[in-house]
Amino acid sequence: MKTPTSKLSSLQLEQLAAWATEAINRSKSGQVPAYVPLLAEADRQGFSVQIWSIDGQILSWGSVATTFPLMSAVKPFVLLYLLCELGEKAVFDCVGCDPSELPFNSLPQLETDKGKPRNPMINSGAIALASLIPGENAVVRCQNLRNWLNQQAKSQLFVDELMLDSVNAMPNQKNWDLALAMVESGYLQNSEIALETYNRVCCLSGSVEDLAKLGMVLVNGGEAISENCRTVKALMATCGLYEASARFALRVGIPAKSGVSGALLSVIPGEGAIASYSPPLNKEGNSVGGLFLLEQISKTLRLSVFD
Ligand code: GLN
């Protein structure tokens, strides 16, 4: 048997199962989003988690075969892809890197910032970055991103077309308002292709295994991409949970990114990645069960990056 070299690999399945059961219980206080009909139909009790340690241990619990759209959990990977393809200057000419104190789809935040999206982890930033993805249309852009990610992570992300239909069934006025404001400020050229690309990449879907594998790209980041991985992890730590990010850094101290589907990805430098799926969200739009589980793991194993 391998000697564990990471703290994460000392976690026992029994302990994980006990926390996950309590996480499901606590998630009853959360809400599933109403603005995408298929997300509103998600199984509120559904729960899956997969944990990868750098020393090769994989621990899973729950319905790990379930696939779900990444939604905003794709944002760190849009950022990583563009940093690698276009470089830092092109990316940060287009988006800022400061935390936001308002919700992820806030127009007032964008207006305060004179139309420059504050960071890549909120909708305005990701919509602006979607417009930079190479490709002649949204389908090709998403395909380019998907191929690159699947190659880097050895994951099997796919576009959930039914979810995309559901996203498109109820046009998202808030995202439209953000896109139009960015066209006005000059940070976006074509709002249609940007939104179409953004919606499509948010529907890139997979299981907790796929999400954990994506996380391991950020943890292991080979030489060619390691600097970009560091940038992405820093932005996850400061902006990944929107206006809750600073409080989360104090309590848990792990770079993380959530999505409205209930996806939550955490990456622990030098340790590994934790991917979970639990649909009910708190008021900031972060998975209640996922956050609870992560806090237990972090506190018990002393995984805060500030420890
Ligand atoms: N597609 C979603 C939206 O634009 C993503 C937001 C999220 O996951 N927080 O509303």
The fraction of residues assigned to DSSP E strands is 5-15%
Strand order of the largest sheet: 2-1-8-7-6
The CATH class of the largest domain is: Alpha Beta
CATH fold name of the largest domain, please?
A: Beta-lactamase
Query: How can the largest sheet be summarized?
Result: 5 strands, antiparallel
How many structural domains? 2
Please give the number of β-strands.
8
CATH architecture field of the largest domain: 3-Layer(aba) Sandwich
Bound molecules: glutamine
Key features?
307 residues; alpha+beta; Beta-lactamase; 2 domains; 5-stranded antiparallel beta sheet; 3-stranded antiparallel beta sheet; 14 helices; 8 strands; 11% strand; globular; binds glutamine
Question: Would you give an account of this structure?
Answer:
With 307 residues, this protein is an alpha+beta fold. It folds into 2 domains: 7-69 and 206-301, Beta-lactamase, CATH 3.40.710; 72-204, Beta-lactamase (3-Layer(aba) Sandwich), CATH 3.40.710.10. Helix content is 49%, strand content 11%. It has a 5-stranded antiparallel beta sheet with strand order 2-1-8-7-6, with helices on both faces. Strands 3-5-4 form a 3-stranded antiparallel beta sheet. The model has no long low-confidence stretch (mean pLDDT 96). Bound molecules: glutamine. Residues 71-72, 104-105, 123, 172, 175, 202, 259-260, 285 line the site of glutamine.
